[in-house]
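User: Show me an example of a complex going from sequences to structure tokens.

Assistant: Sure. Here are the input components:
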Amino acid sequence: MSDWDPSQPILEIENLSISFFTRLREIPAVMDFSCTVMPGEAMGLVGESGCGKSTVALGVMQDLGRNGRIVGGSIKFKGRDLNLMSDAELRQIRGSEIAMIYQEPMASLNPAMKVGAQLAEVPMIHQGMNKKAAWALARQIVEDVRLPDPDRILKAYPHQLSGGQQQRIVIAMALMSKPALLILDEPTTALDVTVEAGIVDLVKELGRKYGTSMLFISHNLGLILDTCDRLCVMYSGEAVETGSVRQVFDKMRHPYTQALFRSIPLPGADKNARPLIAIPGNFPLPHERPEGCNFGPRCDYFQQGLCDRGTIPMETIQGGDRHESRCLRFRQIDWAAPPKAGKTFEKAEPGKVVLRMDDLRKYYEVSANALFGRSGETKVVKANETLTFEARESETLAIVGESGCGKSTFAKVLMGLETATSGRVRLYGEEIQDTPIEKRNTNTVSSVQMVFQNPFDTLNPSMTVGRQIIRALEVFGEGKSDRERREKMLDLMDLVKLPREFADRMPRQLSGGQKQRVGIARAFAGGAKIVVADEPVSALDVSVQAAVTDLLMEIQRREKTTLLFISHDLSIVRYLADRVMVMYLGHVVEMGTTDEVFAPPYHPYTEALLSAVPIADTRVKKKRIVLEGDIPSAMNPPPGCPFQTRCRWKAHVPGNLCEIEVPPIKKLPGGHQIKCHLTDDDFATMEPVIEIAAE
Amino acid sequence: MDNLTWPQIFLAMGERFWPVWVALALTFALSITFKRRLGLYGKLFDSPIAMIGFALVMFWVFAAIFAPLIMTHAPLDQLPGMRNASPGKALRDPQGSYPYYLLGGDTLARDVFSRMVAGSVVVIQIAPLATIFAYMVGITLGLPAGYYGGRFDTALSFVANLILAFPVILLFYLLVTPQIVQSGLPQYMAAVLFLFPILFLGVLVNSRFYVKPRFRNIAIALIVVLGGWLYLSTLSQPGTPFHLLPRALDLFNIPGNTMIVFVSVVFVNSPTVFRIVRGLTFDIKSRDYVAAAQTRGEGPWYIMLWEILPNARGPLIVDFCLRIGYTTILLGVLGFFGLGLSPESPDWGSTINAGSRLLAIYPIPALAPALALMSLVLGLNLLADGLREESLKD
Amino acid sequence: MLNFLARRLVTMLLTALCLTFIVFALTNLHPNLEKLAKQQASVRMSDAQVTSWLASHGYARPLVQRYGEWLGVVPGWTGKDAEGRPTGRCLSHYEGIKGATIPRYCGILQGDWGYSTVFREGVGGFLATRLAATGWLMLWVLIVMIPTSLVMGVLAGMREGSRLDRTLSVASIASTSTPEYVSGVVLIVLFGSSFTGLSLLFKQWGLISGGVILKGNATSAMSHITFDNFALPVATISIYGVGYIARMTRASMTEVMTAQYIRTARLKGVKFRNIVLRHALRNALIAPFTVIMLQIPWLLNGVVVTETLFSYKGFGWTLVQAASNNDIELLMGCSVVAVIVVLLTQLISDIGYVYLNPRIRIS
């Protein structure tokens, strides 16, 4: 590698095309993709699922599986074309010069090998290091990624570590040989937000420390803003815009990039006054790409006869720093024009109280040991502690929290899939906490319905879409005859804006967003009054998220539904919720209107959560608060305040009160409540986490 | 007349199988033409392995169907001078019947070729049906065990493991004896086992159509009357405590020893099916669409039979093919030890057993049914493998 | 872990009791006893004579009580025969031994396995010699079967869809389709018959001096095992098992090879050989281990068929003799052995699974 000059790009991809071959056809996954990464530079690759960003990464690694093949272009690493290298040469580069960090840390680590052995293997292969030295190096790197007790961790098996720790190990493994290029494929998607923040900080810091170049693949624009210098936006197998992060965020020159930014909830978006603008239509399947511009059919600036023919080249934009766009009309478009005024809505006034929870508790008994369980010691998991709140008609109440906070348990109790341990749940004044679903009358059942998280799991794969909605109608006793029910079903399809002919399709023929719509139609089949939406959009692509969210809001306005919106995504919560309830390890730590919760005083957890959420807006200034450690297990919660193990305000409370006593609920003016030992004076000193710099 | 040489024997056998060839050609021509419209079945014709397997299986199915046309002699006919006859030996005095013993004669001077073909009828009648029954039992018990878990599951799993812990041969030796047939135990077991299909269908219909009472009532009535009639006819046996139906209404009589073979094969297979279904149910019940069904207040049987079972079908279909093969092997074991079916029965296991005594001198009487059995099981296993591969490709 | 073991043992014990009781009940049905009486005394007995014979030999008492006696938790019955001499369950075994103290309990728990009516010998000792013979057979089967099948499975599974994979997969499917009574017949015809098959050819070509390549009869292996007399029975049992284990290993291996941690290893720059040996193998062998252990009781069936086919007088042959000759105590002995084998292998498979799989070995 001596003939490589460090002022040259470390990675230079030119006109790369990658295809997958099936029995029936060739499926192009990446077409005419070019990008350059300079030494020490962090390059972001952004796009929705299926756009080919991960394929690019695997192409760089030359690991496309049996069906994938590079059909054109070159990938030069330090001046040498990776496409032309032999297996042995590639092996030398993999792991030592180019390392990769993966999406799912648990699956990426060998379950039957000790962490230390997996780490030490890298220098043993590449530097021919002896075992002892390699383990010593491993120990040092484990310290570098800020894991506590490195000796214990080296001797542990991957499953003994938490998700965050596993990802740190994967990062450590990538750094063992001090690679020149690090490829990160959605490294934090599987992690909780507060854990993600720590990982992002670590990656940034290590990148700086070792001078490593990075190729950062993500669907999250906010994360790219936090980590990268440059980015490349991909759509349907092509790069559509590339440039420095600032330029692309503030002076985008491709309609897709613009549409993408308009469809994600940024601070300032409001469901009534400034609703999100969803991108119309669907992501094209690889073998159904349109002629001409791939984005054409969904583009506001589409011009017939121009955008729908030929291939469209990447063009350099004058005055930018290597800023390019794949659009024929970027010179004509008025990029400063505000979006066409969308519909605005009157703010709906919340009506009477429909649901009230009083001091609800749900404890589970689980055996301490899953495999050898049954008898022996059992542990009590306190999934919900003293949950008290009310929800009103046509109100949206968001329930925010990370994994293990008890938000799903609470939904189960409300739905009647579980009965409460103590406390009361009153639906229209009727107590339902002890009535399991089989004993509830049809009316109660149909008035509380649920929209599920995973679109690929929410529909029965072996029943047509229409049949599934009709079944719900049958069970809820809607309609008198089969014909009447079919009519009603078609009406519901209209309600969720799906073409009527979809009724006879199987779920696998639908996209994720469409499936989620069917799920919504099914939930509203019996005229639901309360809908529990359990992360309904978190598994969807950003451009589809806006459309599904809008649909929910629209139905809510029309039907005056009470929406209980469970989510971990604070951006979307801020956008659509009227009131917010923040949960941590089964406790409600803060509750109030959206404005109250998103402004100081905060509960220390809310404060950290707000700081952790990446925001794709260059104007936003955030205070960086990174929590130490992981979320404790609900099986083994800390004594006293549930958050005391990670709280940065703990020192402000005299004595070790936080470790002894569960804090009382502090009522602030306007119904805002915080479960914390801090005094009013402490609260008064809190500063806002998010500030929008004046333009 | 001269004896036939080996090439002539093969030609002659090929000729005797002509209805099978015609049927196979038709099946394949039709299936390949319409394979895109036939779902998973159509996909079989994308995989050479699956096609070979399917061809082998269908070969024996058609052989069983057209057995009367294919057989050269009646399976029990003993012709003079044909004792341990070598393959292709000409009859001394054909008298209008087929002039050769294509694969020679056995120790009792019966035609090996015809007995081999007749053996396929026994297998094709019993094996798939026994497997279906084992599935009914396994599904009806496995679904609730996996869905509810808890005590019910523990108890059922204990019983299943109990049966599985029996070495199969010991179980057969204990169950398939004349003494047991005398005691009426198979009839009692059959009475329980054969109840499952009716139960299964009844619950299947009721759980879904209770929302449309009229349709449900008609369907259930039909199931109970027709199923009940079949059930009683199967069980009813004049001269035993199970003389349940007057002779005029009794549709068919199944001899006691066939019944015991059938019952014991079902009995041996059900626990494994139970375990598979239980595992699949356990896996699928955590899906959101099951939760969706629960939250709209569906009954447990609807969820098990209409939400979980259809989505477990992939692995079950594959296992079903394998299990028919296994059942065929078990039937062979029974025959090999002379259990159950009568000694003259042409089933493959019994003929292998009979032939194995003089194996070193006259190999063909044992070899022919052995290879027949192997080719059928091989076909089923290849078919299962092809199905698995193709269903994964979706 | 100890807790787990204890619970497993209790379940095992319960299973063993249930199983032996079922076998006891099924072998002691009235028709069986009637047959026994006629075998022992006279074929032409009247029904009344049978009844009195059964009564005087202790068979007329309740089933559960007799099961208890057999087990050794209920005192053995005592009585007097027609001539007034004392008889009893525990007495019969000490006939002719003067001055022997007759124990009160004499069941399995006391080590008294009963008396074989067919072989005129104590069941315990008889079974021990037969088991030893079968032990050798099983040992060789395992030595042949396990390495063959694991190597086949790993080679097929490490590169899914390759030509090697296809070939080995079809071979293993073919072998699972060949039950012992088929492979035994084919092997004997091919190698063990001087009138047909390869032996005849080889002899004509002058390759072998004797009549057969390998012996189609394994009786001589009872006294000394040679390749000649043992190869065919071992091959017969192995063929059926090899395919099954190889299929399982292949399935497990292909699954592991597509796992993300294998990609991690590949992109770390590990050589393919080391990926297979260091990263994949251990994970891929967890499932087949269980299969192999559970296969052993299944081999028992193969043993019965093979021993019958090759006239090898081991445990399987004994079982057939006992069952077809209504030798109740011997059959009970066989069942006890079989049940113990099954339960022990289940236990070993459980413990081994926990040991191999670090994900479970946490606490």
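The lines above are the inputs; the final block is the predicted structure for all three components together. The mean pLDDT of chain A is 84.
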